[in-house]
Amino acid sequence: xxxxxxxxxxxxxxxxxxxTYRDFPEALANLKRSMxxxxxxxxxxxxxxxxxxxxxxxxxxxxxxxxxxxxxxCLGCPRIIQEKSGDLEYFRDLLARGVIKGLKFFPGHDPHYxxxxxxxxxxxxxxxxxxxxxxxxxxxDSNPPGRMCGPNTDxxxxxxxxxxxxxxxxxxxxxxxxxxxxxxxTTRGIPNLYxxxxxxxDDDESPGTERIREPLLKVLAEDPRRVIFGTDWxxxxxxxxxxxxxxxxxxxxxxxxxxxENAVRTYNLKL
Length: 271
Hints:
Layout: E1 3-7, E2 12-16, E3 19-21, H1 24-37, E4 42-45, H2 59-66, E5 72-74, H3 87-96, E6 103-105, H4 120-129, E7 133-138, E8 140-141, E9 147-148, H5 150-153, H6 155-164, E10 170-177, H7 180-187, E11 193-196, H8 209-222, E12 227-228, H9 238-247, H10 252-266
Parallel strand pairs: 1-4, 4-5, 6-7, 7-10, 10-11, 11-12
Antiparallel strand pairs: 2-3, 8-9
Helix pairs in contact: 3-4, 6-7, 7-8
């Protein structure tokens, strides 16, 4: 089994990876074809964290698109810089009912740091519910070109959160691309801090597989439960992500942990 814990939907004029996405249902159909082609059995989708972006669906729209499709689920994405009264309880209800599988924060995309005080009520809530929190973490964001995300998403901040909330499942997305070795050194030995591999091997977004190979093998040797498969579809190439994991010199049972077992446990998936 393969589970992708990190994918997006979008509609825009023009093309992405040679495909045209004229509306959300068409983008979803393309995702389903990609899942089938790459042997991916379940995908967790990440909505936009505000509702007025015409190119990406917000949470309510994403849930409507997913409907009853058992091969798809999604996260919730609080936008703490525009938090509305009742947001915390809204997400609490969705998490408690299993409608969403965790929360994702976008420090760097949004103007706040990963450990912003406004995030902390959500950390406490997720810790009490056994739900994961996911952080975007890259050193340089490619949209718009050259914008720096590093200070906002520094692994030191995310490691500090994991240490302060030892029963909280903390997922660091993108392995702090492209500073993989720095990310490994900063977060080593923290059992409740996990990595999703989304966007780390695509030619358009990363220096290639060699830079992440050694830090990734170190994490797997120390605790293989901490690595989770993700692709960052539709921006990144899922075929290359599958191939990267398949090529790692690790036992087949460890590959299965990366491809599915760690995701099932971390995101409380009922498959």
